[in-house]
Known about the structure:
The structure is a homodimer.
Chain A: E1 2-7, H1 15-29, E2 34-38, H2 41-46, E3 50-52, H3 58-65, H4 81-93, E4 96-103, H5 105-120, E5 126-131, H6 147-167, E6 171-176, H7 183-186, E7 201-203, H8 211-225, E8 228-233, H9 266-279, E9 284-288, H10 292-295, H11 301-319, E10 324-332, E11 335-341, H12 343-346, H13 367-373
Parallel strand pairs in A: 1-2, 1-4, 4-5, 5-10, 6-8, 6-9, 7-8
Antiparallel strand pairs in A: 2-3, 10-11
Helix pairs in contact in A: 1-3, 1-11, 4-5
Amino acid sequence: MTTLLGKGGGPTAVIAQSLVGAILRARLLGTTARIYGALHGVQGIVNQDFVDLTDVPEEDLELVAKNPGAQLRSTRDKPDQVYCANILRVLQAHRISSFLYIGGNDTSETLRILSTQAAAIGYDLTCVHVPKTIDNDLVCNDHTPGYPSSARFVGHAFMGINRDVMSLPGVYIGVVMGRHAGWLTAASALAKEVDDDGPHLIYMPERDFDMQTFLRDVKAVYDRLGRCIVAVSEGVHDASGKPILHSFKDLDTDPHGNVRLSGTGALADFLSEQVKHSLGIQRVIGDTLGYLQRSFPDASDVDRREARMVGERAALYASLRRTGSVTINRIGDYKVDYGLVDLADVAGKTRVVPDAFISDSGTDVNEAFLRYLRPLVGSDFRRAYSLRAPAVPKILLE
Amino acid sequence: MTTLLGKGGGPTAVIAQSLVGAILRARLLGTTARIYGALHGVQGIVNQDFVDLTDVPEEDLELVAKNPGAQLRSTRDKPDQVYCANILRVLQAHRISSFLYIGGNDTSETLRILSTQAAAIGYDLTCVHVPKTIDNDLVCNDHTPGYPSSARFVGHAFMGINRDVMSLPGVYIGVVMGRHAGWLTAASALAKEVDDDGPHLIYMPERDFDMQTFLRDVKAVYDRLGRCIVAVSEGVHDASGKPILHSFKDLDTDPHGNVRLSGTGALADFLSEQVKHSLGIQRVIGDTLGYLQRSFPDASDVDRREARMVGERAALYASLRRTGSVTINRIGDYKVDYGLVDLADVAGKTRVVPDAFISDSGTDVNEAFLRYLRPLVGSDFRRAYSLRAPAVPKILLE
């Protein structure tokens, strides 16, 4: 009886917590003889690239847990039926009884195929999906481990940017990760202290993006405040669904055919140029928050705890021989409970930001969203505080 | 007798500490009747945009001190003789006896002109320069408030990026702020735990940048490790001194004629394209760390304390009617002392990274630099820690 751990998709700041949670709980439960880790997820399985985690000292694991990123490394491979058959062949050879796979909805889909194939050949394999994604787009979950820490980073980033642009006025356009869902971009509103604080405009993939409307929106804010801070999801698209990034830049794809939106400053630069030339504003900054959003080592304490717990839960379900996807459900303000749902309920599905969290203008979030997000980003999330002091009457009259 | 405070140039994470330090110390010393703040630096002076800081509650100031950015806002104006004459006219009208100006070497130059002009007309004005710049390029100083917090951000950023690129291999190019000096880019090496950790190549403006050498360097690392992480200063230039950014992009200038290097992802994207096309590597990420480097609300505790102290010192020197620039001098490991030098000693001068801190290859920093930097970035700077576990022998033989 060996338990195998692995990780698929993009890293987050708290994956290592889930990994360590699963290892330590599996040891405590004592129902598994050995605990293996696959390097680079399913790719590592077919290559038999395993490490033995059974006896790694707890002190080491606790240091590992504090680090961002995937300690077992990761993969973008999305196995098909043939690939999954190869995985099963290796798992059987290594006498793996449980496979705990940390990842998003693609990862869940891989496990769904695997468990179906295993059942068909009478191989008693327990498959547990451990949720993680900064995109926060898993269905059946209140939120997803990794998202709170990334939201914390984005919230802190715009808190600083707000003050920066107030100091030296202009237009600031910050591009935030998020292909289909605007959860992370929405987090840019988290640190607003007073109404005039930025971001003043938030563009999410949940609404179609129209260039003329965008320019009109920016002009209106700039005319009123002398500055304008914009948060834009990398995945914003026109009414036909085509990403704005691809209206002026050739499609860039990864080795598995996924269209790439991150890793370039092109969208921010394109929008900046539009504002400069159409509105004649001189100081326009285009920033792309980039890969720091998912790897910056400043995790939310709530996220750390919950990521640990879903890992522990996965080990528990594995010991009970229960296949499924671990979920996080909010049961109070703020308290969560954990559960298990069928892999098929989560696999391949995407949860976008609901209308109930988006303002009527379509370019802001509302108080209901902020109430949803605030408890997640950590007990030490910074509060903005502005200097208030009376004006001194002018003496010299021109 | 009124003391005036103001802020010039780009914001940092700890300016508010210097501001609050100066206000509270001036109150304690009791040699000034009122304390004013100029909004937007010298621009606010000529417009008589002053706020009265004399009675702002200490509790409020302590909350303000924790915030990044310039609470009195800032300006890029570099006053000439005529502009300075206008400033003096306003200062005299408002009976300002001391002007404490927080900023970099341009700010020091403004104060130098002002104090010379004031002396010429017999106006007893004390001018104290309070050092701040994320560029760390002030002469006569061991380091400059603002730099440690930005270095902390850059160090943490590359710590996360290292793990991210290890998870999903490729080439990562991160562009870091720094026009003439590579201090901030050098900080990218701060969180390296083992030799193979990134950044593997660091390009600073202290060395000429050659595209063919760059591509050869990247290829060598990529061939060896299967990944390559690069940190590049925005100000890297060819042998003629022309910024690489301007070899393919039109000059962008701010309203005062300074050539702008920040606010665009163009350099990272350009270098990425070169690597993609010349080396045929598919996964190449171009990130530009952008304005978060100077505004992210996660200051170093050492930086916070020292920024507070230079503000307090400035108030002390003002009360003693001593004009000059406050300095930070290292006197131990780690301990600093504060001093005052002539404005002309600092004004308009730039301190670059010395050869003694750069490796022979020219694309890395050495242990001496890391010993210099480590004490500055905060007692809670994160340590990377990698999982180590034995490999499992392969069972299936193809």
